[in-house]
Protein 1
Amino acid sequence: MEKIVDNHINIAGLKKTIYQDGNPLKILDGVDLTIQKSEVISVLGPSGCGKSTLLNIIAGLDEPDEGDININGLDFGSRLGSVGYMQQKDLLLPWRSVKDNVILGLEIRGVSKRQSYEMVEPHFQSFGLSGFESNYPHTLSGGMKQRASFLRTVITEPDILLLDEPFSALDALNRSRLQMWLLDLLEGIHRTVLLVTHDVDEAIMLSDRIYVMTSRPGRINSVEEVPYPRPRNREIVNDSSFVELKSKILSFLWDQD
Ligand SMILES: Nc1ncnc2c1ncn2[C@@H]1O[C@H](COP(=O)(O)OP(=O)(O)OP(=O)(O)O)[C@@H](O)[C@H]1O
Ligand SMILES: [Mg+2]
């Protein structure tokens, strides 16, 4: 019992079935996961196995059919808004400029517009958005929208960050830059992070533990501890233990196909 209190996020026996044209489709079939405060964990799994559904449930946008979710004792209603959630779809507001989209979360928390601008301004350069602050979302590339959406999520500094493939639309260089930016952010201010990704290197680079899911209906197939201390740098990708861990995780994923 004490362990549950110490945990930041504790999920047990989560099940979810949706109905398509009246036919049941089992999406999640007993998902268990535990994230301690300040841990970064990644969830990997085949497309359609229920990763985004899992994040929606944790964020409080959707309800499970069965199972327990304990996030620092918050009930379902108060979860929404207490976590920072970057959804897979960028969901930028088309009628707001990049700058006004990025400050949205700050505004909702009651920070003045002027102060919000001051807070976000220093980040546009490192997010590759410099010069595009006044642009509207339809004039941006997919990668730029994703970076704006990522900045909007992290700028409010939530204790818990749920990130659904935050770097999927980015080219290798920008992807690597933002991974490093996130690593640095996590060094300075410890946050609890749940990251969904398809990129095994990214999962190992960024997280303390990796959950590999089965194909639908999603269950946890394997839990892998990542042995590298922080701060980390990109050099760990050359480590033989990195290559071994990557190949072990890939074999779990390939077994699902
Ligand atoms: N609103 C919906 N209506 C119908 N089916 C849905 C809906 N949302 C999800 N599904 C189905 O639920 C399953 C899980 O979807 P989910 O988006 O959680 O998968 P995922 O693991 O995030 O996939 P991906 O890696 O492609 O993002 C899929 O088979 C999808 O077809
Ligand atoms: Mg998804």
Note: Residues 2-83+158-256 form a domain with the Rossmann fold fold (CATH 3.40.50.300).
Protein 2
Amino acid sequence: MRVVGSGVVDLELPPEHRLLKDAIRDFLEREVEPIVARHERERRFPAEIVRRIGELGWLGIPYPEDEGGAGMDTLAYAVAIEEIARTWGSLALIVAAHTSLGCGPLHLFGSAAQKARFLVPMAAGQMLGAYGLTEPGAGSDAGATRTTARFEDGGWVLDGTKRFITNAGHARTYVVAARTGDRPDGSAEVSAFIVPADTPGFAVGRLEEKMGLHASATGELHFDRCRIPAENLLGERGGGFPIFLQVLDGGRISIAALALGLAQAALDAATAYARERQQFGRPIGTFEGVAFMVADMATEIAAARGLVYRAAWLKDRGRPYRLEAAQAKLFASEVASRATNAAVQIHGGYGYVEEYRVERYLRDAKLTEIGEGTSQIQRLVIARQILNLRVI
Ligand SMILES: Cc1cc2nc3c(=O)[nH]c(=O)nc-3n(C[C@H](O)[C@H](O)[C@H](O)COP(=O)(O)OP(=O)(O)OC[C@H]3O[C@@H](n4cnc5c(N)ncnc54)[C@H](O)[C@@H]3O)c2cc1C
């Protein structure tokens, strides 16, 4: 254990994780920090920074080297996302969606040929990936998937629309869920497919104007008689749900890490401001009303960090972690919303203007309570694991 900058007691990381964290921090401070505000204001995707991050090996941190990755673990990946989010939430979301959701299904379920063709260049940072599960009518209820895939003349033909897809328009490979039939009980048979962006019949639709995370792209995917070869089926036919559930379990750790990074950024900013800003002839941090907000932020962030690192640690040891990933995501995202809100409050009027960036942290943090399963869905996942009942 050791004490860091703003008085937070940090968990001691293994040396290689600390090296990675320091390298990311150094890169972000030098090359990224100066361009964040402009990209956010202009809602501009940071293509050049993403390319640099790929070159540095940070687009495939938890995957083996023979799959194009850096050969590190989930803890390293969580630390990286936390550190990136501390500077730029949008960039952290781009990297997390690519790594967990784009590469994750291929790592877990891809054949040797699929890994060689898609995962290796993605994890090596040469092309970006994305993941399309959500549809206009299927959000929390992924079973309501309407996009269809029909087997025709030796290939799959996809029709339908996906919504809210991170990295839309910038990814070159999309893993998508589509309905391949009905099961005997009437529920959807869902399968997973790999769709290269240059496939005829595939198009990126409208990009969203979001509340936060402005430099990340979130958009629609359209499939209009989009034909892909038979070998682009990922895993077994009808195996879509187990794939997506497993991928989301891992993805939740990265969204929790993203929330943690935003919360830490809010605490860092609030701490500095509470020490500097003078009112009534003294620093505002000397007023109990402000000091206790800082104390609560620091305490909750320490607890969230413990949950995030615990979920990563379990995953890295091959132990069950669905419950712990949901707990980490639920708690860290709600902490991020509270901490970023407190940071705005501590900044007073300055917190409400763009110049002081804490308003950006607050807008960005809200997404972490929604994406990859809302807080309500996390509570359902947690309750089901504990009660061993199907809570609805
Ligand atoms: C910026 C952004 C990026 C995203 N990136 C991706 C991506 O890359 N890929 C992808 O596939 N999706 C992505 N999503 C979609 C995201 O995962 C969904 O928005 C989310 O799962 C919620 O679905 P929904 O928006 O349809 O809300 P709904 O499911 O309609 O939920 C609306 C409300 O009802 C509540 N609710 C629903 N069901 C229940 C229940 N059973 N019990 C209690 N409450 C319930 C929800 O918690 C929520 O409060 C992204 C979304 C955003 C905003």
Note: The domain at 242-387 is CATH 1.20.140.10 (Butyryl-CoA Dehydrogenase, subunit A; domain 3).
